[in-house]
From TrEMBL:
Record-linked PROSITE patterns: ABC_TM1
UniProt entry keywords in alphabetical sequence: Cell membrane, Membrane, Transmembrane, Transmembrane helix, Transport
Subcellular location: Cell membrane
Predominant location category: membrane
Pfam family membership, one: BPD_transp_1
Membrane topology: Multi-pass membrane protein
Bilayer-crossing regions: 59-85, 97-123, 143-167, 203-227, 247-271
CDD domains (alphabetical): TM_PBP2
Every ABC transmembrane type-1 domain range: 60-268
The protein's name in its UniProt record: ABC transmembrane type-1 domain-containing protein
Amino acid sequence: MHLSRLHIFCLLLIPVTCLFAFCVVPLGVAGLSSFVSDTGQFSLQTYWEILSTEIYRSTLWATLLISAVVTAIALPFGFLIAYYTVMVVRGRLTRRLIYIAVILPLFTSNIVRAFGFMVLLGRNGFVNNTLLWLGVIDKPLRILYSDVAVVIGLTYIFVPFMVLSIASALQGIDRSLLQASSDLGGGPWATFRKVVLPLSLPGVLAGSVIVFTLSVSAFVTPSVMLGGRGKVMSMLIYEQYVSFMNFPFGAALAITLMFAAFVVVALYSYVFERKLQWSRT
């Protein structure tokens, strides 16, 4: 079936228009408004205030650090689940059930999951009561309303994205390569290290980027898990837009967060790609 240029243009017109209208235009409006001062003139005052104020710098750093920790924790869990599902499980029905179990939490609201963790991680929650019963601790730990609680909640929410990304890469590995490695005397560990792991790195990169960017922009889970005793950048942006109605400053915070996340992702992708090229030589 041959499509003319007119048909291709018509097929692409709707998605490109939606992308432009709902992504490019709002981002452009936010970017332009971030350079508007209180007097309505072009100014870099908002960005200077963000970079010169300790609370904004520390909140930005805390947001990036939490996102990096979530990504670092989700990576081994996601890889183990994906590897077991794709490489170990043979039954098609069992594999489907595992995929369903992995994505099932995504059908639940973030608010519901966050309040569920409040029950688990609270002072009198299941985790503290279990540790007290086992004699591991003498008094309840302060897990809730801390960065640790945010990391736990975000990791639970975003692990499925890591699993699906890595599983997609593992499914694309030609099984004849594994057989060839075995025929050449390679053991399970050598096959994994020299065949499976290098070929799965694109999925690892994709999953890491997805989890990191979603963690950076997360709002509901940090808001509930911190309980007003801490801040991440998304909470500051929400306050500026909704509570203070300071649109230029809220836009500047959003652009700053987006730029910082872009720099981190770009550096990570560059280093990862260089390592991937080195592993193939």
